[in-house]
Amino acid sequence: MRVRSRRKKGPPVEFGFSEEQLMIQDVARRIAQEKIAPSAEHHDRTGEFPLENIRTLGENGLMGIEVPAEYGGAGMDPVSYVLAMVEVAAADAAHSTIMSVNNSLFCNGILTHGTEEQKQKYVRAIAEGKEIGAFALTEPQSGSDATAMRCRAVKQADGSYVVNGKKSWITSGPVAKYIVLFAMTDPDKGARGITAFIVDTARAGFGRGKTEPKLGIRASATCEIEFADYVVQPDEVLGEEGHGFKIAMGVLDAGRIGIASQAIGIARAAYEATLEYVRERKAFGQPIGAFQMTQAKIADMKCKLDAATLLTLRAAWKKGRGERFSTEAAVAKLTASEAAMWIAHQAVQIHAGMGYSKEMPIERYFRDAKITEIYEGTSEIQRLVIARNETGLR
Ligand code: CAA
Q1: Where are the beta strands (DSSP E) in the chain?
Q2: Mutate-to-test residue for ligand 1 from 225, 246, 256, highest number of ligand atoms within 8 A of CB
Q3: Which of 53, 281, 329, 330 is the most exposed place for a label (fewest CB within 10 A)?
Q4: Domain covering 19-131 assigned CATH 1.10.540.10 in the classification
Q5: What is the DSSP string of 254-292?
């Protein structure tokens, strides 16, 4: 008896990439290897913001990969974004952090929710890498519990808003020209009382607070920002009043594909360095890669790296088809960030003293990997999102 499936058949699963996708991967790999990798140690040691490299990435379409050409971007798909992010992150995670905020959190948010005028006015400079964008959701007392924000935007009779409050952990905050800001417009309504705005950092009422000295991704500048009677005009509201929380969550869904890609890049760099090392380093008369204990680690590293890569490409592929991809993005980010941390940990262990020394980049991979389990939703939040979506319970 033949069993017939009643489910609609989707397209066949493809493991190949289009010519355009491979082209943008090549461009990213070339810039990553020729410009970013040689200065990665310098940027990590000094924490200097890599403005020149960001400009180069922008000139080559990598700061607005999914942004249509009419707004200054490369007009590519989410899979291309993953491929390019992995290449840049493998050379230096800090560069890929700046790249992911420009691409996913800033450009994607305005392209999805902005008016035509907002797209024309704000997206081009960021997508071309001429200016830097940022995303301000977190506050000193509200991280995972994003609806607990205190930053207030009070509507005036003329339709403008006056903003007061603080935001913290703002990636690219010290250098951003424009910021997508989330503020409470109606505290009685909780999540439905939050509104998104576009902020110009050159205007009166905007200020920068302390910068964060960080464990990893040290060249990606991070600071607090402050608003003191900052005035937002009605045409600077992003989406509708009260829709800010949903905008933030949707933008973060896309952002999580970017962070998963970053994690894959870090993991790949740690894995490839380890493969080379275990073939060369000898102990007890043979390469350490010939010992079964090392081989088991290599096999597990390879499995985790491949699983993370396939799950992240799946999330990007669903996004590209215009389907809901919240669960897939959370699965990808959780798997990839935990894989990156585990792989970097094993890489340090296998390199032993050399893994602990600043003479090799292994300890940098270890420090950089950790942030991927924290920002754009901690691993605990990804588990919560996945389980809520799967069970329908909360
Ligand atoms: N897309 C669209 N809408 C969504 C959504 C999504 N993915 N997820 C939730 N919503 C909607 C819900 O449907 C609900 O709508 P209704 O009011 O119409 O029912 C509304 O949003 C509220 O949802 P919840 O009740 O689920 O909200 P919650 O308070 O329980 O929070 C949460 C859910 C998943 C914990 C969320 O707060 C969250 O993701 N927290 C983590 C925040 C985060 O990732 N912060 C990262 C900061 S940014 C950053 O890190 C940038 C950087 O530095 C690079």
Answers
A1: 133-136, 152-155, 161-171, 178-184, 194-200, 206-211, 222-232, 237-238, 282-283, 286-287
A2: 246
A3: 281
A4: yes
A5: HHHHHHHHHHHHHHHHHHHHHHHHHHH-EETTEEGGGSH
Assess whether 376 carries a catalytic annotation. Answer: yes
Residues contacting residue 200 through CB under 8 Å, at least 6 positions apart: 177, 178, 206, 236
Q: For residues 128 and 250, give the distance between their C-alpha atoms in angstroms, rounded to a whole number.
A: 23
pLDDT digits (tens, 9 = 90+) for 312-368: 999 999 999 999 999 999 999 999 999 999 999 999 999 999 999 999 999 999 999
Q: Is 138 in the pocket of ligand 1 (CB under 6 A)?
A: yes
State the closest ligand 1 atom to the C-alpha of 245, by its place in the atom list counted from 1: 21
Residue 48 near residue 107 (C-beta atoms within 8 A):
no
CATH topology of domain 246-391: Butyryl-CoA Dehydrogenase, subunit A; domain 3 (1.20.140)
Closest CA to 250 of 180, 200, 341, 152: 180
Our CA dihedral for 265, 271, 274, 280, rounded to 10 degrees, sits at -100
pTM of the model: 0.97
- Angle at CA 391, nearest 5°, toward 386 and 393? 100
**Is the CB of residue 250 below 6 angstroms from any atom belonging to ligand 1?**
yes
Which pLDDT value is given to residue 173? Answer: 98
Write out the CATH class of domain 134-241. mainly beta
pLDDT at 8: 59
Whether 246-391 and 134-241 are alike in CATH topology: the answer is: no
Close Cβ partners of 332 (under 8 Å, ≥ 6 residues apart): 256, 257, 260, 308, 311, 312, 314, 315
pLDDT at 119 exceeding the cut of 90: yes
